Amino acid sequence: MRYFIIVLLVSASLNAQTYTGFTTASAETQAQQEIDFLNQVKPADFKTHLKTLTQEPHIAGTPANEKVRDYMVTTMDKAGWSVDTYPYEVYMSSGPGTSLVEVVSPVSKILDQKEEALAEDPYSQNATLVKGWNAYSGSGDVTAEVIYANYGTKADFEKLEELGVSVKDKIVIARYGGNFRGYKAKFAEAHGAVGLIIYTDPKDSGFTKGLTFPEGVYYNPSAIQRGSLLTADWTGDPLTPYQPALPLDHKDTPERLAPEDAGLHTIPVTPIGYGAAESIFKYMKGEVVPQDWQGGLPYTYRVNGGKDLKVRLKVDQPKKMTKIYNVVATLKGKEQPDEWVILGCHYDAWAFGATDPNSGTAMLLSLSESLGRLAEAGDRPNRSIMIAHWDAEEHGVIGSSEWVEQMKDELKAKAVAYINLDGAVSGKTFRASSAPSLKTLIAGAAKAVDYPYTEESVYEHWAGEKPEPNIGNLGGGSDHIAFYMFAGVPSLSGGASGPTLYHTNYDDFYYYENFVDPEFQMGPMVEKLMGILSLRLANAELIPYDIERYATDLELHFENATQQVKSFYSDFTGFTASSQAISSLKLSTTSVAKALEKLLSTGNISKRQKNQLNAQLLALEKSFLDPKGMPYGDWYKSLYASSDPFSGYASWILPGIQYQIETEATQDLKMWDDRYAKAIKELDDKLKGMLESL
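== Glutamate carboxypeptidase II ==
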């Protein structure tokens, strides 16, 4: 939907811009403000912040991470923002505890569990770096035969069953990729495994891809991907579903689950590098794997190791109640302060976190300074802009989820959008995924910013040879989850990406300045784009959602779902109730779009009418919130989108229906059709109500 289009010849980078939600007069003001904002950006700030943030490893729950917290508070306070710190007390580990991986027979060898210190990279020699570990591993000491399970996906374990291979009482070794690591552990434990070892195969990132670090960007033999295993039926602290994990001494601290009732993994799990994994694979003597399971090590991969190969896996990982801290800064809006545009990135890291997450953290600190200077010059946004730095994301998207649970009522009434910027300056390729209502907006902002290494705009570089860029759908894995899937806030995740030493001790400033962006041009580019995006959301008279996109996207998603169901249920006749509701919705979105465009073109909108329409626009996304939630976890309330409960990362659109497709269930398809039709009708009724008020 385009409420109003105006062409202003004020700057080459802002030519032919579409200012959604603006009147003619306010679009002219917005265009000038965007020029003023771009002039406030100081390119050197990003590098300064990134180097400071990544001086030391800073795992959630450690003093080093609190030092990062204090630096962010000071920086944004100096920039003129009102800064609040939100403490929580959650159940987690802040370190690996003790662990051991050992080949017991046919030889005796203790395997490396930490990256090699490199002369070229002084950061890799830091004495506080810890070995590879998986948060929320179970504890135990087991010695057993070995089974290779490829990526450890649901399909891979089903394939093992098909091959007649049992993992019961065995240690599973699986490579990273294909799904969230926690599901590898969940599936292994469910199939009777006594332990799990996870490694990065060189076929996925290693010498088969190109030069390895420190010569190149791929995993060297000692590089280890750390990461959480948390797979509760909700996102956030495992002991306080639906309630914020306020500190134990807080008057409103919630009643907590007992740890044994939280569904945590009980088997020991740990990651290793492919150099260590080679010492297991070379002794495997069992059946040859299916062809697509073959990795990049110089051996024929085997499904089972045989009786002669025994491996010992020991993990003792204590967990305890741990303080974490979110930092949320506000630049108060001058006209509509109770409407919030929220940008966020977590700040905790598995080690130094130069790309993940602190490239996003550094960019947001620079943005807070640029917007602060703009406000100091008298150009404050109309709506409030909030910049949030989340803690304990790496342990299971905890900090942001606790804040959303704490603030859910206010967020449902006030949050215009959430923009997630996790590791947002990790390379030179811009990408974004978004709720339907924000896709046009992010594309428009990308047209207003120059890409630094070509003569193109970011939009043109992003699109490449295509007429327009691909904007994905949001899945799991980061801090947008609670906003979008629990509270119904339209959300977007974006940034520049590239090859990465993901979750290794090598993701440091040396790696960044040598391989990610040596010229340090991408940080200012992303800052400019996100600044323009947030200012357009903050200043438009009417919240600039693309409401027509709801109907067009829903129509495509239901067509796709119907074809998927027919692939295993040939008698299926379609989601008739939802299709009828979408037909009505299409008419309503078109009518409302035209009416809003006409209203804005008059330039005559009263404050009362503006407030009424904006409140109605804020309510649209909430139509998809269903109190019953999803069959795999009722914390996930959105009928529109969810993370994939079998992989953790993938985007599930129409998740209630997608769950039926994944499990090839047919008995509840009519029920889900009715639930979706009800939600779509609720959205349609809200739009018709808007039309009446226009």
